[in-house]
Structures are given as C-alpha cells and as structure tokens.
Design goal:
Blueprint: E1 3-12, E2 15-25, E3 30-34, H1 41-48, E4 56-61, E5 64-65, H2 71-75, E6 78-81, H3 92-97, H4 110-122, H5 138-150, E7 156-160, H6 168-184, E8 188-192, H7 196-202, E9 205-210, E10 213-218, H8 225-232, E11 236-241, E12 244-249
Parallel strand pairs: 3-8, 3-9, 6-7, 7-8
Antiparallel strand pairs: 1-2, 1-4, 4-5, 9-10, 11-12
C-alpha cells in the first residue's frame, strides 16, 4: 500500500499549521515524522486519517482519494492509534474487538470473534486477553491498542507518539513489536516521535517538519549535525554506532 500526500495545507482558527506538505510512503516501510513540539506532527496524522480536513492538497492511498471517502470507508483502509486513549474496565479482548467496528453490521459475527482470537495469538497477548485495560502498564496497553488497530485489517497504520510516557525497555519493546508487525503483515506505518535515536533504530525513512513545511525527507543518510541543528536549533554531534547514526546533544 502506497501513500501519496501532495500540496497539503491546514489552518486552525485562521492560523497556518501546515503548508504545502508533500511526501510518499511505500509498502512495508516505517516512516518517522520528527520535529519540535508544535510543528504539526499530530495534525498531519489527523489529516491523513481525515479526522480533520486540510484546506488544500490531496491524500491518495493506492491512488484512492481518502478525502473523498466516508469515515467508515477510510477506517477499512487505515487505522489510527492516538497518543492518548480512554481506558475503562473492559477486557483487552473486548477492547481489541472494538477494532472490528468498521466491518460489523448489526451483530458481531463469529468471523469477527475468530479474527480477534487470531490477532491475540499472533501477537502473543493471551496473558492479557481477559485483563481489564485500566489495570495494565503503559507498555501492555499500547500493545492492546496496536492489536485493536490491526484487527481492522488496515493497509496503513498511523501512530501518534507510540512510546510516549514509556520507560526505555517498553519503548524498545513497542518499537520492535511494531517493526515485526509491519514487516510480517504487509503493512505500512507512519509514526510521530520525539526520540531521534529510537526513530533511527527502528524506522526506514524520516520526515522532518519545520516552519509548517517538510524541511527534509529521506533515509538515515540525511541524519547530519547540520540537519538536526537547523530543525531543532540545537548543536549536536552525530556518530556512527553499529553502522547507524547516533545523535548526541552538544558539539565537539
């Protein structure tokens, strides 16, 4: 599944948030959207998911115009995991079953139940299935939310800061979990992140936003001290660790 975004602009209360944003994501890729706070990363995800409508531009998924579709049609093609989700006393199984809503008519079918069982088994979440989600750790809940998104059977997965508020181990676990899913389920994923080094480790391509626009986009080769300094206004050193760039605040 290939996503093409072209000429996308968005304004909020008359104020420009995104201007002429263009990029492309290919099948089986993980794209990390990076940039300072308030630069429009979450807004860009919400535009792609058609939760908010851009003032101009096109968003094509396999040449299908997402902006011309109904919300239920969009939900069958892509899934969105927001930064914050409401939790309650429902079990993980029921929370994951909610991901089948775009496909369910008047009644839950046996097919929907089987698909939930299958995703729980495939993602090794059996120990969580009957636990209330409001009793889970941040890492456990994030895995359940990703499972809920996957049971929608999307081709594109959008995640807003999926490692926010998680400790280092859970950050690594969630990103490794996500990479396994993308590479093993014919998925494409776009995620917003703050941790550049975690993004470098797990993503395939990178999109840096600055001043409402795409400042730079590409593979790990674009990660330079000059780029990071321009985007974040902070001098950095970039060194190679196990063949990958690693960003260290401050300069020599």
């Amino acid at each position: 599944m290939i996503l093409d975004v072209a000429g996308l602009s968005f304004r909020y209360n008359g104020r420009s948030v995104l201007e002429d944003v263009e990029f492309r994501v290919n099948r089986h890729e993980i794209l990390a959207i990076l940039g300072p706070n308030g630069v429009g990363k979450t807004t860009l995800l919400r535009c792609i998911n058609t939760l908010v409508r851009p003032h101009s531009g096109t968003i094509l998924l396999d040449d299908r115009d997402l902006l011309a579709m109904r919300r239920d049609e969009v939900a069958r093609l892509l899934a969105y995991v927001p930064q914050r989700s409401e939790t309650g006393p429902i079990t993980a199984f029921d929370a994951i079953l909610l991901g089948r809503r775009p496909h369910i008519g008047w009644d839950i079918r046996r097919e929907d139940i089987l698909k939930v069982h299958a995703i729980i088994e495939k993602l090794h979440l059996g120990d969580l299935a009957l636990r209330p989600i409001n009793s889970m750790s941040g890492g456990e809940l994030q895995k359940v939310l990703i499972a809920r998104a996957l049971v929608q059977e999307p081709g594109l997965l959008l995640l807003d800061e999926p490692t926010s508020s998680l400790d280092l181990k859970n950050q690594v676990d969630i990103l490794a979990f996500l990479r396994m899913i993308v590479k093993g389920h014919s998925l494409t994923a776009i995620l917003t992140m703050h941790d550049i080094n975690q993004a470098i480790r797990f993503a395939d391509r990178f999109l840096f936003l600055k001043d409402m626009r795409v400042f730079a986009a590409g593979t790990r080769e674009i990660i330079t001290p000059e780029l990071i300094g321009e985007v974040y206004g902070l001098p950095v050193t970039v060194v190679k660790v196990n063949g990958m760039p690693y960003v260290i605040p401050g300069s020599d």
